[in-house]
Design goal:
- The chain is mostly helical.
- The chain has one domain.
- 51% of the residues lie in helices and 3% in strands.
- A two-stranded antiparallel sheet has the order 1-2.
- Helix 1 packs across helix 2.
- The longest helix has 26 residues.
Length: 235
């Protein structure tokens, strides 16, 4: 039971830092952090994602390429151009590594130099293994371990796989295959309104209808009221 509860908490914390910090902030700059909250959230993102941590700058470059070539030649993660979900997951990581090699090393800072070496990832894996060894009550509990270790990558691949294959469209002027997949969006807190997002990528609220709800936007509004962030455009 401890494993399952921890897994669910970790899933939603990953969904929050993925959607809020890496995607909406670092990739689309829908808002900006006041004072030093950027570094706080970056460190929190690193601690939550652990062995699956992705350099936000590389993620941003990869994701902008996805929007520029959405579902066409050059898209680094499109289900239209992948044979299967696993193939999409592999292609995304391959393209991410290729883009990472083109980035000039950023200036030294706490936010830019969080450890993401092979050794640091191995230590994260060891920490997760020790946790499972201590709390797992059956062999079946270990089936969650691979998902636990790769949770950020798996969530990103699922968002692109589901959000560009299944669901509905609100607009007819988009020349891509993005969809709103509300049936399972409760697992991704608003990130599966992909069609709405591709229509207005700088808009912090992904919902456009009364029947649509963007939980991450509600969190952002709360952070704005606490003077942690400030929106860049009208919400």
């Amino acid at each position: 039971m401890v494993i399952v509860i921890t897994f669910l908490i970790h899933w939603y914390l990953t969904a929050i830092v993925h959607g809020l910090y890496i995607h909406r902030y670092r990739s689309h700059r829908q808002f900006y952090f006041l004072r030093n909250w950027d570094q706080v959230f970056h460190l929190f993102t690193y601690m939550v994602t652990g062995p699956a941590y992705l350099d936000p700058k590389t993620y941003s470059m990869t994701h902008k390429k996805h929007h520029r070539f959405s579902d066409k030649e050059g898209d680094p993660h499109s289900p239209i151009r992948s044979k299967s979900f696993l193939h999409l997951l592999w292609d995304t990581q391959k393209n991410f590594r290729q883009i990472r090699l083109t980035i000039v090393k950023p200036q030294q800072s706490l936010a830019a130099q969080l450890p993401s070496t092979v050794i640091s990832r191995a230590l994260w894996v060891l920490l997760y293994l020790l946790f499972y060894y201590h709390f797992a009550t059956s062999f079946w509990s270990y089936l969650l371990l691979p998902i636990h270790l790769l949770m950020l990558h798996i969530q990103g691949a699922l968002i692109n796989w589901l959000g560009h294959k299944y669901g509905y469209k609100n607009f007819d002027d988009l020349n891509d295959n993005s969809r709103n997949t509300l049936s399972v969006d409760f697992l991704f807190l608003g990130e599966l309104m992909q069609h709405n997002h591709h229509r207005s990528p700088v808009k912090p609220n992904n919902s456009v209808k009364h029947s649509e709800c963007d939980p991450l936007y509600l969190i952002l509004r709360g952070l704005a009221k606490l003077s942690i962030i400030k929106f860049r455009s009208s919400t």
